[in-house]
Specification:
The complex is a heterodimer of chains A (154) and B (104).
Chain A: H1 3-36, E1 41-42, E2 54-67, H2 70-82, H3 89-110, E3 115-126, E4 138-150
Parallel strand pairs in A: 1-3
Antiparallel strand pairs in A: 2-4, 3-4
Chain B: E1 2-3, E2 14-28, H1 31-43, E3 45-46, H2 48-71, E4 76-88, E5 91-103
Parallel strand pairs in B: 1-4
Antiparallel strand pairs in B: 2-5, 4-5
The chains are: A alpha+beta (154), B alpha+beta (104).
Chain lengths: 154, 104
Amino acid sequence: MNFDLVFFLLLLFVTYITGSFVERRHFAKLRKREQWSRKMIVTNFKTLPPEWEVASSGLVTGSVVISVDYFKRILAGLRALFGGRIHVYEPLLDRARREAMMRMKEEALSKGYNAVVNLRLETSRLASSRKNGKGTTGVEILAFGTGIKRARQD
Amino acid sequence: MILSNTETVMGKNIVEFYGVVTGSTVRAKHIGRDIMAGLKNIFGGELKGYTELLQDSREEAIDRMTKQAESVGANAVVNVRFSTSSIAQGAAEIFAYGTAVRVE
């Protein structure tokens, strides 16, 4: 049997295991961290309810760069031949977005804000580090908004 | 200096406009980080080195924007926007812009 083929299949198998392990662990962590933050109001509205009294406000950001594992990249590459939904990428972007928002909320909390308005989410792809496009690439998700400290909670 | 990505500063009134202020920085990742990121790129996970790099660059861009706002006599920047563009292999530009205003 061809050694290259064995190596390829082994890599595919190993990265499938590591990739799904990383994903499961991250989702579990996210669920735990999202518990407390339910109390914090996050909205993409530009304006506040008129009854809110604002004591202070300021910009809050949160970002994360995620990478795609080898297995997912191969699978997505195959899918791109036939077209259709790339299932393996969906949870990846979902957890990246949730992570970025979590970090933004944590920054808001550390600055003493108890709500975030005008939330914006941006996605950008980082260029590969090598000329042939084979180097490392990543997807950056940035979440930012205006943190609000309410004068009194009612 | 108050920063906000809404068009007004909550709970305050804008008394004067000074126009658009910008700040940008171009950063490249260093090779040590890139090797680690290369491994992560095979096995999956967060590229922590890159996250930090972009976070630092964003702070730098915001800092430059704030300095510019200070120099024109503003005390707040409203409607702040960010943009990230990969301009070359392994380098990214982080750009922050907003409108400098005086609030009371």
